[in-house]
Design brief:
The protein is built from twelve helices and no strands. It is mainly alpha-helical.
Length: about 280
């Protein structure tokens, strides 16, 4: 019995780290795909919203939702879309390592926003740890002036990532997670569709069809978005939210290692960057 339980938990944690690895690859697509951040996220949500609807329909996972719950899912999806546009813009302005490591400040914003939005108890110890993370980011911020705009946009992306996490926790509690994720993808798509009107007006250059970019976007929207979210939903049924969120704090580490292997980004980074990353990761552990 003990061996069976150990094997079961090992399988769960391997799945969890596989999910974190998938999340680590999402930043890589920001560099591989040549479209700007807006077009990238718009096409990503277009494919993801369509794919998840038909997939969940085929799996008989979609259920009827009250209008209020649908609106909540759509609103959190819009927040997620803003976060992703800023996240990929940060990568375009700097590199994968910078864009992903700034996400480690999500804990700082969450420590501040969660008590205000959900009315939970303010945890002083968590706040101290997140302040140390911010100090680590300060070290990274000072290592090269040419990346400062990318870091600033990454921080804004982290703020919206925190808002998404907090409102996701507030709205999705005790709701059907599969149906809720479906409405989140739909909400992200609708938000991007509305924003596409001023984007087209302000952007004079025509959008070119690039086969390789479309291939990467299909991969990103299906495997690295829909399947990733559904995998996390399945794990949430068996593991605590704390275990999952803590493990996902390793996403920047995976992303940095992948960026070093694929793009030799270690040549763009110096000691100050690594010291900041070590401090931020120490706070996570």
């Amino acid at each position: 019995m003990a061996l069976f339980l150990w094997c079961f938990m090992l399988q769960l944690f391997l799945k969890l780290h596989f999910a974190v690895l998938l999340a680590g690859f999402t930043g890589v697509f920001g560099r591989l795909i040549t479209y700007d951040a807006f077009i990238l996220v718009f096409i990503r949500f277009s494919i993801a919203a369509t794919f998840i609807y038909f997939l969940l329909k085929a799996m008989h996972k979609l259920k009827e939702f009250p209008v209020r719950h649908k609106v909540q899912g759509i609103l959190t999806g819009a927040i997620l879309a803003i976060h992703l546009v800023l996240f990929y813009l940060s990568i375009k302005l700097s590199n994968i390592s910078i864009g992903t490591v700034t996400l480690a400040t999500t804990g700082f914003f969450t420590a501040v926003l969660e008590p205000l939005i959900i009315k939970t108890r303010f945890d002083k110890s968590n706040f101290v740890y997140t302040l140390l993370s911010v100090f680590g980011l300060f070290l990274i911020f000072n290592f090269d002036t040419k990346f400062r705009l990318g870091i600033a946009v990454g921080l804004l992306s982290s703020l919206f990532s925190s808002l998404f996490a907090v409102y996701n926790k507030k709205f999705s509690y005790k709701k059907d997670p599969y149906t809720f994720v479906n409405y989140q993808m739909f909400g992200g798509f609708m938000f991007m569709l509305i924003c596409a009107i001023p984007y087209i007006v302000l952007n004079d250059a025509p959008i070119e069809f690039r086969e390789l970019d479309i291939f990467y976007l299909i991969l990103l929207a299906t495997v690295f978005t829909v399947l990733l979210y559904l995998l996390v939903v399945q794990l949430s049924e068996k593991l605590s939210a704390f275990t999952i969120s803590l493990t996902f704090n390793l996403e920047p580490v995976y992303a940095i290692v992948i960026a070093m292997i694929l793009f030799n980004e270690d040549k763009e980074l110096n000691f100050s960057f690594y010291l900041g990353v070590v401090l931020m990761m120490t706070c996570v552990f």
